[in-house]
Design brief:
This protein is α/β, with parallel strands linked by helices and about 190 residues long. The radius of gyration is 16 Å and the shape is globular. Helix content is about 40%, strand content about 25%. The longest helix has 29 residues. It contains seven helices and seven strands, in the order βαβαβααβαβαββα.
Length: about 190
């Protein structure tokens, strides 16, 4: 069984969705949720779902003898679900093509440092985009530049506020993110 470790920084709705999805399957399970935010709501979700959690600071995150050592021992695949720090090169290299992130826009548009959450949705609306969506991609050493695995689109109506766009994006995330993670695990198993 493949072991998934989820990185999250906030409320953890995507993390919970992924945990519940894999609880129904035997190919993989979420064994840990790790966070850089000791006050993240995702920690409450972990308690409710009986999932191990680990909190770390910037120093521990960058120290190869701390987080990287832990990940090598505990994880087969890493999933970023609302995690905002750039992953250190040492972790990217140790988990080459085994770190998956979701971005709330159709990359390469609206990617890069500072482009997350409502910042993205506000920019999409401000630029009168007719379509937006999600991008699920591998993580490399740069923000939002890893190889694209999957994209899904949704229309942006002239009447949509950023909050409306956010709701559409969340629906796409919940529908597709767990399935794409499963597809990646299956393709790694068969490839």
């Amino acid at each position: 069984m493949k072991r998934i470790v989820i990185f999250a920084s906030g409320s953890g709705t995507n993390a919970e969705n992924i945990i519940r999805f894999f609880q129904q399957l035997e190919i993989a399970s979420v064994v840990y949720v790790v966070t850089n935010n000791k006050n993240a709501k995702v920690l409450d979700r972990c308690k409710t779902l009986n999932i191990n959690s680990l909190t770390f600071n910037k120093e521990e995150f960058l120290d190869e003898n701390k987080l990287l050592k832990f990940l090598k021992k505990e994880a087969d695949i890493l999933v970023l679900a609302g995690f905002l720090w750039r992953i250190p090169v040492s972790i990217v290299e140790a988990f080459s093509n085994k770190i998956i992130n979701i971005h709330p826009a159709l990359l390469p548009k609206y990617g890069g440092k500072g482009m997350y959450g409502m910042n993205v949705h506000k920019a999409v609306v401000a630029n009168n985009e007719e379509v937006t969506g999600i991008t699920i991609h591998y993580v490399n050493e740069n923000y939002d530049e890893g190889a694209i695995i999957f994209q899904a689109k949704t229309p942006v109506l002239p009447s949509d506020a950023p909050e409306d766009v956010a709701q559409k994006i969340h629906e796409l995330e919940y529908e597709y993110f767990p399935k794409v993670i499963l597809d990646v695990i299956n393709s790694n198993e068969n490839g």
